[in-house]
UniProtKB/TrEMBL annotation:
SUPFAM superfamilies in alphabetical order: FMN-linked oxidoreductases
Record protein name field: Alpha-hydroxy-acid oxidizing protein
Gene Ontology MF annotations: FMN binding; L-lactate dehydrogenase (NAD+) activity
Species the sequence originates in: Massilia glaciei
Entry keyword Lipid biosynthesis: no
Cofactor(s) required, per the database record: FMN
Amino acid sequence: MRSMHCIEDLRKLAERRVPRMFYDYADSGSWTESTYRANSDDFGKIKLRQRVAVDMTNRTLATTMAGQRVAMPVAIAPTGLTGMQHADGEILAARAAEAFGIPFTLSTLSICSIEDIAAHTSAPFWMQLYVMKDRAFIERLIERARAAKCSALVLTLDLQILGQRHKDLRNGLSAPPKLTIKNIANMMTKPRWCMGMLGTRRRGFGNVIGHVSGVDDMGSLSAWTAQQFDPALSWSDVEWIKRRWGGKLILKGIMDAEDAKLAAQCGVDALIVSNHGGRQLDGAPSSISALPGIVEAVGKELEIHMDGGIRSGQDVIKALALGARGVYIGRPFLYGLGAGGQAGVARCLEIIRNELDITMAFCGHRDIRDVGRDILLPGTF
Ligand code: FNR
C-alpha cells in the first residue's frame, strides 16, 4: 500500500479490484449525483491562510468526539454492505480504526454482525441504527449493541424512504450477487475478491439474518428491508430510542437549522450534518455549505459533526474550522478496503492523518483543538 499516496490512488485501485456492482454501489449518488459532486467540490472553494515563521514542533491531533478520546477527529462512517467491498470488510475496517484510535461505526445493514465486530476488536465501537417499522427488531438491536459494549448509538434520520441510484438499478445490486452471466464474467476479472469471498461465510446481512423470523434467504431479505424503513418516523421515535438506549446518542442526517433545533430539544449528545454522501435528496446543498448555519443555530447546545465529500486532511481541517468537532469518512475507507483490505483502510487513515497534521502546521497551529475560522481566507466560505 506504500505506493498509494492519496485517496484518489486508493479509489483507482479499488475500481480495478472490486466487482462492478459493489464498486458502483459505493461510488455513486442519487439521481443526477449533483449533491454527491457538490459535497467534495465545495471543499475546493474554501481557501486556507498560509502562515509562516510559527513554531511547528510538538503537534497533536488528539481530541474527543461525543466524549470519547480520539487520536484524530475522524471516524469511520456507517456504510451498508461493506463486507461486499472485501470479504469480512467490517471486521477489517474496525480493526484498522482501533489501531488508529478512532471510532468505527457499524451499519445496521452490514454484512458482519455486531457480535462479529465485538469478537474481533477490543475498543468500543459505535452502532448505527435505521428506524424500521418492526420496533421489536430495533429493541433487539439496541440490546445487542449494549451487550457488545458499543459506546454510542448513531441514529440515521435521512432514510425513511430510499433515494434512487440509477447504477444500483442497472446493476441489479444484491448481496451476495446473483450469479448471472454478466456478474460471473465481471467477478472472474477480480480473483482476489473472489478468493476472499470463498474464504468467508459472511455474505448476507449479519445483523438481520437469524434475528428476524422468516428472513433466511437474500430474496426475502431485500424485500424485508424495502418494506421495513419507516416512512412515518417522527421526533417521538427519537425520544423513544433515546430512552431505550440510555447511552450516548448521535443523530445523523441533519441538513436544516430548524431540524437541528428540534434535535437539540431531544437532548442528544451530537448531530451529524450529512446528506448521506449525496445518496438521498439530490439537489440538497453540500454538507460543508450547510455546516455553518447549523453550528450557528445549535453549536452552543450540542456537538456538531459532519460528513460528505471529505477526501483529504485539508477537507477535514476546513470542516473543523467551520465548527465541526469531528468528521466521518465513508467512501475513502471503502476505497481503502477494496484496494487492500485492512492494510488499505490503514493506508487511507494514514494519508488523511498526515495531510491533516501537515496542513494544521502550515496554517500556524500545533493543537487541532485550537483550529478555528481564523485559518480560512475571508470571502471563500
Ligand atoms: C452510506 N451511508 C450510510 N449511512 C448510514 O447511516 N447507514 C448506512 O447503512 C449507510 N450506507 C452507506 C453505504 C455506502 C456505500 C455509502 C457510500 C454511504 C452514508 C455514510 O454514512 C456517510 O454519510 C457518507 O458516506 C459520507 O460521505 P462520503 O464520505 O462517502 O463522501
